[in-house]
């Protein structure tokens, strides 16, 4: 049986009369999960049962019906479960929480958030923000990101954001040498060596951070946040309250989720929110597509992948139809430890990838010698006349970073990433529609 991937299933056993923050506990848990962009949760009411007290609760008139046992079941990505588990434990004072590995057979989420036309940043931001102090060692900052979805850590002082440490900061000023999203491709010895080097350098967050980060008020409109993020080409913004204290963080994906169209919905809600989701994809796509042929040799593949900020290249057949996708992370995973330092250097410095002994040595130290050998066969596509809202929904459903834009015959005519889509919602192309 083919599955989509692995996930974690969380079951929380509580009683119907348990409360938290002045409301029923199960409702407080649901609100937390929804606020933090969990994939979804279901509350199941028991017919009868007993817990640690040994008292049997039943649904008949003999006992009190409102003390029935409840089970909240939540299935999500492992990193999301790990992130929110401490907050769940803080809510559940009496009860039981279990976590199991599970296989996902089908997952067709609705990528659009249910928002009103007066929605503000506070309605879509994440409130569970990992922060550090000025004095936090750079190694600790890096370790906070390992295995996590976030790639930037705010630096706070007195509750206010005074800086932010991004992947770029760590590479250029922190001595990391490799982007945070590529750390997962390193084997344990290489990763440990990198962390030890950071320890020896003794740098702190204050020395590598971007000071005075761009922020947005929690009461700001979504178009204002989107415009600020698109104009400065930022992936996320720290969110502050009226006093300037950090209260959350809003990402590019958070904003894109507000305008996607899913499950056959025809009328985009973007205009009602002040964003232009009814712009054709052809207006915002880039036509300089990083592309290679399935038979392209590995050095040529490296060159195509590193030639653009997308850090990936489409694999096209003789008729320019997409047959695969190659990312820099996939390239690193397919080279042996002997070639990995050179491969990382080529990727980070956007240099040609060569080996002192020539291309034959490169082929000998890789699992495959052509684009067809190293590519992923999953390519997310969208037609050039599709609306931005439809393209956004397609990208979010597959958790893709880019979309290949095709004509009516399925030939690639352009490409877009998340930054292009967000810019299209707020830029001149959107305003002309």
Automatic annotation (TrEMBL):
InterPro entries: CBS_dom (IPR000644), CBS_dom_sf (IPR046342), Diverse_CBS-Domain (IPR051257), N-reg_PII-like_a/b (IPR011322), N-reg_PII/ATP_PRibTrfase_C (IPR015867), UPF0166 (IPR003793). Residues 125-182, 209-267, 285-344, 375-432 form the CBS domain. The keyword Lipid biosynthesis does not apply. Transmembrane segments: none annotated. It holds the Pfam family DUF190. Keywords: CBS domain. Belongs to the UPF0166 family. This is CBS domain-containing protein.
